[in-house]
């Protein structure tokens, strides 16, 4: 898979100590994005998912996996593989996406699988006019922190209390 990099012990990409994967490639191109170097799908480095999984599981203090970007749903099958390994290891999964929850169903089976393996989804494009440094876990007010399991069960977006 193409990634921009990983962070072994992030405390800003969700609660607890997180292993964060920054995917490479993003179709959104949000003005003011804090990871613009991840936009070009030709950038970054090619890494085997098995290698990333070994790195993720190497720290016994890790609480969860965060998939960020770039756009994780642009590599949904690979990200679902990482998320599945995280869940098998008892870790929680957060996924950041520029898509809104309601758009993800149209992206196909791999996107659905990734969504089903995600505990919390932070959705929506970053909007510079809505930017706030006071927000927890998100960059702009339009972005939502979604409890995915409850949302899939109810059929509509359920905001997380995380």
Shape: globular
Average pLDDT score: 96
| Approximate helicity band | 25-40%
Q: How do the strands of the widest beta sheet line up side by side? A: 3-1-2-4-5-6-7
> What profile does the largest beta sheet have?
7 strands, mixed
Radius of gyration: 14 Å
Q: What is the tally of helical segments?
A: 5
What ranges have pLDDT less than 50 throughout 5 or more consecutive residues?
none
Instruction: Give the percentage of residues in beta strands.
Output: 15-25%
How many β-strand runs? 7
Query: What pattern of helices and strands is seen along the backbone?
Result: EEEHEHEHHEEH
Q: Supply the helix-strand structural class.
A: alpha/beta
What is the terminal separation in angstroms? 29 Å
Describe the structure.
By secondary structure, this protein is of the alpha/beta class. Helix content is 26%, strand content 22%. It is built from 5 helices and 7 strands. It has helices at 49-57, 76-88, 101-104, 109-117, 148-154, and strands at residues 2-10, 18-23, 45-46, 64-68, 92-96, 120-123, 144-147. A 7-stranded mixed β-sheet has the order 3-1-2-4-5-6-7. Helix 2 links the parallel strand 4 and strand 5 (92-96). Helix 1 (49-57) runs parallel beside helix 2 and helix 2 packs parallel to helix 4 (109-117). The radius of gyration is 14 Å and the shape is globular. The termini are far apart. 39% of the residues are buried.
């Amino acid at each position: 898979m193409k990634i921009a990099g990983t962070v072994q012990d992030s405390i800003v990409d969700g609660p607890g100590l997180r292993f964060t994967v920054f995917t490479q490639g993003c179709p959104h191109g949000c003005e003011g994005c804090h990871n613009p170097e991840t936009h070009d799908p030709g950038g970054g480095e090619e890494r085997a998912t098995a290698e990333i999984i070994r790195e993720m599981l190497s720290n016994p203090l890790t609480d969860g996996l965060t998939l960020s970007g770039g756009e994780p749903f642009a590599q949904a099958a690979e990200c679902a593989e990482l998320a599945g390994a995280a869940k098998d290891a008892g870790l929680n999964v957060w996924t950041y996406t520029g898509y809104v929850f309601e758009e993800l169903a149209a992206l196909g089976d791999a996107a659905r699988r990734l969504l089903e393996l995600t505990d919390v989804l932070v959705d929506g494009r970053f909007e510079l006019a809505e930017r706030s440094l006071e927000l927890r876990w998100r960059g702009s007010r339009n972005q939502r922190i979604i409890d995915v399991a409850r949302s899939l069960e109810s059929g509509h977006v359920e905001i997380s209390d995380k």
